[in-house]
Design a protein that fits this description.
The protein is an alpha/beta fold and 500 residues long. It has two domains: 42-63 and 71-104 and 377-500, Alpha-Beta Complex (Aspartate Aminotransferase, domain 1), CATH 3.90.1150.170; 120-338 and 345-362, Aspartate Aminotransferase, domain 2 (3-Layer(aba) Sandwich), CATH 3.40.640.10. The chain has 16 helices and eleven strands. It has helices at 21-41, 53-60, 73-86, 106-118, 129-145, 160-175, 179-182, 201-208, 229-241, 264-274, 311-314, 330-336, 365-400, 421-424, 430-450, 477-499; strands at 153-157, 190-195, 216-219, 245-252, 277-281, 306-309, 322-326, 404-410, 413-418, 456-460, 463-469. A seven-stranded mixed beta sheet has the order 1-7-6-5-4-2-3, sandwiched between helices. α4 runs antiparallel to α13 (365-400), α6 crosses α12 and α15 (430-450) packs across α16. The chain is globular and about 85 Å long. The chain starts with 20 loop residues before the first helix and ends with a helix. 44% of the residues are buried.
């Protein structure tokens, strides 16, 4: 039983979690100064630290219990900042080439602070009038940036998985509307189509939304790792003749592994012929649609029924920010809108809880909106184009180097592998291929431990590859030119160690 207290003691209530304006100002100014100082030294520091999970947990004192009493805000923030500065992987570092996670825009970080302070629930217009309108404008601007049709609908979500999920459910509601009420019991089997290079979100979606992963038709790829459109159409016809319901085809605009863009225009034509929803997973590559030198296929984004994009990839927004776009806004309402009795919101405005799976929604749009205004479309086209040019330059350097084998180059992803000179001239054998995979895995481990750069991997035609992805406005030509000498040195050391 709670102790009895005089209610009058709460008349001038001061909660332990609150801060005075003066204290907040002091702590905030100090934290901003610390972050600015860290940004000044980011490029000269390590990309990551060679630490074990045990090392990180020890620094955190992870085994301590929940404190009974609190501490002052200032030293607590100092401690938190130092923990993160000393024990993190920095995707904002100019030599982070690992994943499609971009360097965060400083104005986006400030936008997150402002959004958190105002703390809008962007689920209903009445709860977040300005935030809702900023999100709507941001969605329109994103569509304009990738040349998606005007008048489309959409909303900001957590990332690529969720953006694709939203579009998946919009497609199901449009092509199999009975599923919303009767579910999938007794219904003809629904089928979704994607290439072997499609991101794993498609398996999660088929699982989560009741179809099961057997509903996915994995379409073969051609020599360039693009979807085989003839095989796609043949599979659709076969499934329909067997009583199935083909409802969704997923084209990829920038695969995770190599950045390949599917033949989107041809896929769109197949979908039109067979009355199937055409969705493009453009989480990575769609933002390059208007960049000079980008793949021609990206222009067919405008033919899609829906597109998923990730501002926290090539718009350099701080994580997390994804965006689902649909050609017809009403398709989102058909997929998500319900009207419980305790909701009494004006339907002449946008209430985002009716357009997606969340009711309570954070103000993700502000950081994207600020950055779009900060640099404009021309600034983004320039930065994305620069990333692509740097990736192409890396590919050229690999081709010129006697100890590396170039594999693929698409968008801003270059794949390659280290090959010792004495193995370059020998005929490939299964034993040699196995050794090169082991060797390049060791090179990857050594470069990560060095902290001098960070790469990831891809599989290209069954071969293990090192993968450098550039979605980073801080990366320069000097960073690209320094990479191969580093990897060559580590490759020689690893080769000597492995061969004794």
């Amino acid at each position: 039983m709670m102790p009895t207290m005089d209610i009058e003691t709460l008349r001038g209530r001061t909660a332990p979690l609150d801060m005075t304006a003066a204290d907040f100002r002091t702590a905030g100014h100090r934290l901003v100064d610390q972050i600015a100082g860290w940004l000044d030294t980011l490029a000269s520091g390590r990309v990551t630290h060679d630490e074990t999970p045990a090392d990180v947990r020890e620094a955190l004192r992870a085994d301590r219990g929940l404190p009974e009493t609190g501490v002052e805000a200032q030293p607590l923030l100092d401690e938190a900042a130092q923990l993160l500065f000393d024990h993190s992987l920095f995707n904002g570092h100019p030599r982070f080439f690992g994943y499609i996670t971009s360097s965060p825009a400083p104005i986006g970080a400030l936008g997150d602070l402002l959004a958190s302070a105002i703390n809008q629930n962007v689920g209903a217009w009445r709860l977040s009038p300005m935030a809702t309108e900023i999100e709507a404008q941001t969605v329109r601007w994103i569509a304009e940036l990738i040349a998606f049709p005007a008048g489309c609908g959409g909303l900001l979500v957590s990332g690529g998985n969720m953006a694709n999920f939203v579009c998946f459910l919009a497609a199901r509601a449009a092509k199999a509307p009975e599923a919303r009420t009767s579910g999938l019991r007794g219904a003809r089997p629904l089928h979704v189509y994607g290439s072997m290079e499609t991101h794993t979100w498609i398996q999660k979606a088929a699982d989560l939304f009741g179809l099961g992963t057997d509903a996915i038709r994995w379409i073969p790829i051609d020599a360039g790792q693009r979807m085989d459109v003839a095989a796609l159409e043949q599979q659709i016809v076969t499934d329909r003749n067997n009583g199935g319901v083909p409802f969704l085809v997923v084209g990829t605009a920038g695969s995770v592994g190599t950045g390949v863009v599917d033949p989107l225009q041809e896929i769109a034509a197949v979908c039109r012929r067979h009355d199937i929803w055409f969705h493009v997973d453009g989480a990575y590559g769609a933002f390059a649609a208007r960049v000079p030198g980008a793949p021609e296929g990206l222009r067919a984004l405008s033919d899609a029924d829906s597109v998923a994009v990730d501002p926290h990839k090539w718009l350099y927004a701080p994580v997390e920010a994804g965006c689902a776009l649909v050609r017809r806004p009403d398709d989102l309402l058909r997929a998500f809108s319900y009207h419980p009795s305790y909701y009494h919101f004006d339907h002449e405005v946008t209430n985002y809880f009716e357009y997606g799976p969340q009711n309570s929604r954070g103000f993700r749009a502000l950081k994207v909106w600020l950055a779009l205004r900060h640099v404009g479309s021309s600034g983004y086209l320039e930065m994305i184009g620069d990333d692509m040019r740097l990736a192409r330059r890396l590919h050229a350097l690999v081709q010129e180097h006697s100890e590396f084998e170039a594999m693929t180059q698409h968008l801003s992803i270059t794949t390659f592998r280290y090959v010792p000179r004495d193995l370059r001239s020998t005929a490939p054998t299964a034993e040699t291929e196995a050794y090169l995979q082991r060797l390049n895995q060791e090179v990857l481990t050594r470069v990560e431990r060095s902290g001098d750069a960070f790469l990831s991997t891809a599989t290209v035609n069954g071969r293990f590859a090192l993968r450098a992805c550039i979605v980073n406005f801080r990366t320069s030509l000097a960073d690209i030119e320094a990479l191969l000498p580093l990897l060559a040195r580590l490759g020689r050391d690893a080769d000597r160690a492995l061969r004794g």
